[in-house]
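Q: For a teaching handout, I want to show students what a protein-ligand complex looks like in token form. Below are the inputs, and the small molecule is copper (II) ion. Please produce the holo structure.
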Amino acid sequence: MIKILDSTLREGEQTPGVYFSPEAKLTIAEFLDGIGVDIIEVGNPAVDVEIHKSITRIAKAGFKAKIGAHSLCRIDNVQKAIDCGVDFLGVFFSVSTARLQKDYDISLEAATDKIAHVISHAREQRKDLLIRYTPEDTVRSPIENVVKAASAAIQAGANIISIADTTGYTSPFHPQRSIYNIVKVLKQELAQLDLHPQIEVHCHNDRGLALANALDAYRAGADIIDVTVMGLGERAGIVDLAELLINLIDMVGEQTHWQLNYLKDLYDFVSDHAHIPIPPHHPVVGKNAFTHYAGVHVKAIAKDEKLYQSLNPEILGLKNNLALGMQSGYTAVELAIKQIGREELAENKELVANILQEIKVIAKRGTPIDIETELPEIIDRCTIKHLITNMMSG
Ligand code: HCA
Ligand code: CU
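A: Here is the structure, written as tokens, with copper (II) ion included.
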């Protein structure tokens, strides 16, 4: 079964301006654990003492999920992570030609020795630790460098190799840049050395293809996929948790264990604490994700919601709903009137038509019309007008 690593508390906190307090971090971890995420990457303890404390606290909280720390490829950093009592350690060090030359100024051999040295240190201390090695910017690195570094890491004790698309470079539609091929080739090359690590993928969204690439990697046999809530992360972020799960439930071909009904509350919580609104049209958890608006749509879904919905909102603990505005038709007004408990008025065709006309005028202000608070006022105004007109004509 595919595993999910959520990095909202690590990669997500690398979104400019985002800070999650220790309490918020614990609540987010609780939600993620409830959803059934396999690994929660909480942060890098070397960044700040508060992060160190949060990782330690979450690692001790007794979650089902494995709790992880992120670390530079340095003994002192790795030691800090181990001291937090984590189940999972992620060590990253790039072996791309450009990075080795321009950033680190070391040879591939020296890099490989360093990776092996740091990972052996971690392994010696904790036999049960899940250790991931990420050759950062994997997808723009020569495959021979990746194989060399990955095999050294595995021999030193790493269980997982992560293919990082650090800059959102891969594409399912570009054979030379497909993560599908990279997963296949890396697995093959390592298998030839009799090495069989779990393969993880970390896809950035710079080209808007993070989700497509993650699913492409899944098809190629990746074992673990990285996500964040709202796709938060550096620059354009990474794969969005809700979007990934909603696609995987159709792809895995067996019953999944994910509790999707927690997603909406988790997203609202993260959005509040990150001070980043969820776009209304965001798939799955956006305010409009199950809202029907135009006349033709509302008329059809009144008969069968599947006519304009391929997802079932109930699996998310949600319901579909209506919007009112310029695009609305008669049925929407009837349904909205019933929704606020004024069924008796829905029979009055002339009144409903007047309400629709008024809604179309109000819609020109360009913001949504709230059914619960505004519709009653609109009804009152129209009812009075309606009475006056009837009195005058009577
Ligand atoms: C980073 C870069 C990283 C690392 C991923 C990993 C990436 O912010 O440190 O360690 O698995 O995108 O390559 O997020
Ligand atoms: Cu990243």
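A: Two things your students might notice: The mean pLDDT is 97. The first strand starts at residue 3 and ends at 6.
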